[in-house]
């Protein structure tokens, strides 16, 4: 791959991540059910596949550099932002952004922490990548899952590579994907949990599978067509899957999901990548925004839920609702499937974190 192709691949993958992060924001807005089901079939696999795309086999001879980069890029921001939300948790109760009466769509609520709960959560954050504020940092599981998945992939790669003549750089990622699939099936079929991994490990297993898919995609992308007709076919298949009630990377995984999620996840990535490739060929403000968005997904992951509060305040005013509903997680549930506030939630959840980090960088540069 020459430098021009490498640059185009980087910007295309940035746009892929931008599309996925915007879809993630939309998926958290409790919008139209069919749309939400459609998004959840593939939006998180896109991130894992994109991460696998950039895996370099040079790390087989220098695994510590890879691990250091993964910890710096995933563990450190996870701890930093989780601790910040932990420190601010009780303050958010005092100023009304959280309360004990309005909660998530299932009726669960959050409470102020006493000192014991504070220290226990801090320990969980540091040693288990858990303990984060479920109501304000609910998407943080991704940092842990990607960290685990990428390191497990590297370890398996080193263990398998060149053990037999047929285990080479082309076949090892396939073997790892098959192993991840088989273990996921065994785990779900027997209702097993990996107790050393928070949430039981199913998302980490999916992460290994999709990370492998990203490695494979990079090896064979020159053989993959991206015609508009194929892109429409991918979209139609995903719509059909959402109509059939197929699942995404849910915690409570049905056995049929073991067989359908690898398909919908890969189809979704191919669809998103085709759209991103088309956008990447058209210079302009849209491309510049999406590339910038894709290169700063971290801040949207961290701050999109707290940014939703801005729209919730507007919705409370518009409908004359109880101000306490500002504490709803992730959005205000009333009228959520019948109005268009989900569009505004998506825009604000994406734009406000980007505006915040842009302003912060400019202020830093000015000094």
Task: Provide structural commentary.
With 367 residues, this protein is mainly α. The chain has one domain. It contains 13 helices and no strands. The protein has helices at residues 3-27, 33-40, 43-53, 63-94, 115-128, 141-160, 172-189, 202-220, 228-243, 255-280, 285-294, 297-319, 341-366. α1 (3-27) packs parallel to α12 (297-319) and α9 runs antiparallel to α10 (255-280). It starts with a helix and ends with a helix. Residues 1-5 have low confidence and may be disordered.
How would you summarize what this structure contains?
With 367 residues, the chain is an all-alpha fold. It contains 13 helices and no strands.
Which residues form runs of ≥5 with pLDDT under 50? 1-5
Q: How large is the radius of gyration? A: 21 Å
Question: The biggest beta sheet, please?
Answer: none
Helix content: 55-70%
- Provide the structure class: mainly alpha
What's the total number of strands?
A: 0
Q: Provide the residue-averaged pLDDT.
A: 94
The number of domains is 1
Q: Describe the global form.
A: globular
Distance between the termini: 40 Å
Total of helices: 13
Beta-strand percent range: under 5%
SSE ordering: HHHHHHHHHHHHH
Please name the defining characteristics of this protein.
mainly alpha; globular; 367 residues; 13 helices; single chain; disordered N terminus
């Amino acid at each position: 791959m020459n430098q021009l192709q490498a640059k185009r691949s980087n910007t295309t993958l940035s746009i892929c991540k931008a599309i996925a992060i915007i879809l993630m924001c939309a998926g958290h807005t409790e919008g139209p059910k069919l749309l939400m089901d459609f998004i959840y079939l593939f939006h998180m696999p896109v991130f894992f596949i994109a991460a696998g795309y950039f895996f370099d086999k040079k790390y087989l001879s220098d695994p510590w550099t890879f691990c250091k980069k993964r910890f710096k890029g995933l563990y450190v921001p996870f701890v930093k932002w989780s601790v910040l939300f932990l420190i601010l948790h009780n303050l958010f109760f005092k100023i009304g952004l959280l309360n004990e009466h309005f909660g998530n769509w299932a009726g669960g609520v959050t409470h102020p922490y006493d000192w014991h709960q504070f220290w226990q959560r801090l320990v969980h954050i540091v040693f288990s990548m858990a303990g984060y504020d479920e109501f304000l940092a609910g998407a943080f599981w991704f940092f842990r899952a990607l960290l685990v998945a990428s390191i497990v992939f590297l370890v398996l790669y080193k263990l398998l590579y060149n053990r037999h003549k047929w285990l080479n750089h082309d076949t090892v990622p396939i073997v790892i994907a098959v192993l991840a699939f088989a273990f996921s099936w065994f785990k779900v079929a027997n209702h097993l949990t990996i107790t050393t991994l928070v949430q039981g490990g199913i998302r980490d297993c999916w992460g290994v599978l999709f990370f492998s898919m990203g490695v494979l995609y990079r090896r064979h992308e020159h053989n993959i067509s991206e015609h508009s007709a194929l892109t429409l076919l991918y979209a139609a298949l995903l719509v059909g899957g959402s109509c059939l009630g197929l699942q995404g990377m849910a915690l409570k995984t049905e056995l049929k999901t073991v067989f359908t999620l690898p398909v919908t996840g890969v189809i979704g990535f191919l669809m998103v990548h085709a759209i991103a490739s088309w956008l990447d060929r058209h210079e302009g403000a849209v491309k510049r925004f999406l590339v910038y968005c894709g290169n700063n997904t971290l801040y949207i992951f961290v701050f999109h839920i707290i940014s939703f509060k801005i729209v919730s305040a507007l919705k409370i005013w518009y409908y004359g609702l109880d101000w306490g509903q500002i504490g709803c997680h992730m959005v205000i549930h009333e009228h959520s499937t019948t109005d268009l506030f989900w569009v505004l939630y998506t825009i604000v959840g994406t734009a406000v974190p980007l505006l915040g980090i842009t302003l912060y960088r400019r202020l830093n540069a000015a000094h």
